[in-house]
Structures are given as structure tokens and as C-alpha cells.
Design goal:
- This protein is an alpha+beta fold.
- Helices cover 16% and strands 24% of the residues.
- It contains six helices and 24 strands.
- The strands form eleven sheets. A three-stranded antiparallel β-sheet has the order 1-5-6.
Length: 335
């Protein structure tokens, strides 16, 4: 528990952060000008693509996937960031730029009552035995875990760093950062599923699998630049919200209907047919795009409408016009 002095020091640090304006929230927008370079990957930003800007660093812009904490290189959740020496950080690692973190409770150490060890710092009352949680005066180390003499002597084999149970002879294990785990214990700290050693990201003392990292990334609409809640529609390498993925003519959502690309935009089938179809000079109805068409004297007809005036049969290539009317070869012979 924090002392009154430690609480006052924490309040002062929080007040200084607010006063200095160290924390802020980025926003998405279309790249404001040509020639800008992503502050993350250093590649050119296209004038038409969505970028993230940080008001505290208004001369910089990032690809959405490059807007990451400088320390842990993880996406900044909800685009919230802090600035230190012209670099952006998540809240956790910004705090570590100001204070050291306790190896016991994982909280920032605010007061002077600390205990230093060879492998870290602790609040004075948090340096306890890993197994029995007894306050440690002297300690012994197994895989970076601190033990009192009694618990150290009780260990008959290598303990799993996660469950603390001794690993029996013949059990399959996994090594990570000098720690030994049961395979089932080396798991994502979010979804709790066992993870492949090569497919996770560290977040402080936590391991997060790639699936959970993807779920944390902010999804931004490639048209309105807004944050997408729920499922996004992916098209042409971009994400869209349901309202923006719509027909350019009638604005009908296209997520559950057929559509076609028309030059640089998308149209529902009805609007595409209307803009690309010709009108039959006989019945005045649209001739569906791609269907057979008869052209005569610069006019367009359905094949069934370009017919003999008398027998109403479709006309072949050879026909007769008499008094402005069209006749097939057989009917023309009877006139």
C-alpha cells in the first residue's frame, strides 16, 4: 500500500503530465500533402491513402500499421499516445521513462522505499518469496524467480516458470528468455491458448499471440477515415465500414448484393445496367448490357423488336422496307 508521501508524488507526476500535455490522441485523415514520409517505416506516403497524425508532432504522419509505441512496437490502442523526446509511446512505456517498475507488483515505484537486486527493483514490501510469499531478507534464484532458503531447498527439479510445478523427467518443455515452461503453460496472456514460441509479441511481462494482436489494431475506414466497430469489409486492400461500401449512384450498401466496378467506383447491378445499357428504339425499354443488339440506321433494337411488320418474325440480314415499314423476304413477296 502506498504511503501518503508516495500518493502525493504520484498525484504530482500525474499533474505534471497533464500540465505538460504529454498525452494525446491521434486522428486518421487522408494524407494532407504530397511528399510526406511515414515517421515509422520511412517510406513515402501516398496522397490518397489514410494516415494517422499526432497533434503533438504535427509535422509527422504514419501509416496506420506504423503508429506504434517506440519501445514495444505494438499498435497504439485507440490511437492514444504520449510524447517523450519527439518519440511516441504507449502509456506503460511512457511511465517507465519517468519511473522504474516494481518487479513484484508491476507498478511504477513512486517513493524512496525500494529494494534493489541484481535483476531489478522492488517496492520495499513486495520483494517476497515466489512460492511462500514470505518477505525476503536474503534470497536465492531459480530461473530469475526469488526464493527463501526453505523453498529453494524444496525444489527437486526445474520448476515451470508459469505454474511453478516441478517439471518431471521426460516431460516436453519450452525455453524462453532463460525460463522453462511446460508446453501447455507457454500461453497467450489474453486468450490463454498455448502459443508457438515464434508467433507472439511481448507487452511488458505479458505474451500476446498474433491473433489477439490483430484484434487490438484499430480498423479505419478507407473512405470516411472513421473507426470501424464490428466487422469490416475488405476490398482492394482497404477496409470499409458498411455505410461507405455502397453504390456510387444510389448509395445502396453493397455488402450483401452483386456489384460491378465502373472505372474508379463501384455500382450496384441496377445502376450499372442503367448507365451502360442502350434503349430499344421500338419498345423504348433498356437493352441489358452484354446482350445481343441489332443496330440499323444508327438506332438500337432488341432482336425480337427488329421484326417483320406483318408476321412479326425476327428479321435476318436481308429484308425489305416499304413505305417506311420492314418486311421479311417472304412477306415482302406478297405485298
Amino acid at each position: 500500500m502506498q504511503t501518503s508521501a508516495e500518493k502525493d508524488q504520484f498525484k504530482k507526476m500525474r499533474y505534471d503530465i497533464v500540465r505538460n500535455g504529454d498525452f494525446d490522441v491521434g486522428f486518421a485523415q487522408i494524407c494532407p500533402k504530397r511528399g510526406m514520409i511515414c515517421a515509422g517505416c520511412k517510406l513515402n506516403l501516398k496522397a490518397s491513402e489514410v494516415v494517422v497524425s499526432a497533434p503533438k508532432l504535427n509535422v509527422m504522419a504514419w501509416h496506420p500499421d506504423c503508429f506504434k509505441c517506440t519501445t514495444c512496437e505494438e499498435p497504439l490502442i485507440d490511437l492514444a499516445y504520449a510524447v517523450k523526446d519527439n518519440k511516441i509511446y504507449c502509456g506503460r512505456h511512457f511511465g517507465e521513462k519517468l519511473k522504474q517498475r516494481c518487479g513484484g507488483c508491476d507498478e511504477l515505484i513512486m517513493g524512496a522505499r525500494v529494494e534493489k537486486t541484481d535483476d531489478g527493483m522492488f517496492h520495499e514490501d513486495h520483494h517476497n518469496c515466489t512460492k511462500c510469499e514470505k518477505k525476503l531478507d536474503a534470497y536465492r534464484v531459480i530461473n530469475q524467480a526469488h526464493y527463501c532458503d526453505d523453498c529453494f531447498l524444496e525444489q527437486t527439479g526445474t520448476p515451470c516458470f508459469k505454474c511453478k510445478k516441478v517439471i518431471q523427467d521426460g516431460e516436453v518443455t519450452l525455453e524462453d528468455q532463460g525460463q522453462t515452461y511446460h508446453v501447455k503453460c507457454f500461453a497467450c496472456d489474453d486468450c490463454r491458448k498455448p502459443i508457438d514460441k515464434k508467433k507472439f509479441t511481448r507487452r511488458g511481462h505479458k505474451k500476446i499471440c498474433t491473433d489477439c494482436i490483430e484484434k487490438r489494431k484499430p480498423k479505419l475506414c478507407g473512405k470516411c477515415c472513421g473507426r470501424i466497430e464490428g466487422d469490416a469489409i475488405k476490398f482492394d486492400g482497404k477496409l470499409f465500414c458498411d455505410g461507405c461500401f455502397s453504390c456510387a449512384e444510389c448509395r445502396m450498401p453493397l455488402s450483401e448484393t452483386a456489384y460491378k466496378r465502373d472505372e474508379d467506383h463501384l455500382c450496384c447491378m441496377a445502376c450499372y445496367e442503367r448507365s451502360h445499357s442502350k434503349t430499344c428504339s421500338e419498345c423504348r425499354e433498356l437493352i441489358s448490357a452484354g446482350s445481343r443488339i441489332v443496330t440499323h440506321e444508327s438506332k438500337n433494337y432488341h432482336p425480337k423488336c427488329f421484326a417483320c411488320t406483318k408476321c412479326h418474325g425476327e428479321l435476318e440480314k436481308r429484308f425489305t422496307i416499304c413505305d417506311g415499314k420492314r418486311y421479311c423476304k417472304a412477306c415482302a413477296a406478297k405485298i
